[in-house]
Amino acid sequence: MNEANNIKEEEKDVGLTTATLASVGAQPEVRAVAASSFNVGGASSAGAATAPAIDEQAAPLFSPEETKDFRARWDALQVSFVDEPRRAVEQADNLVAVTMKRLAEMFAAERTRLEGQWDRGDDVSTEDLRLALRRYRSFFGRLLSM
Question: Is 35 a residue whose pLDDT tops 60?
Answer without folding.
Answer: no
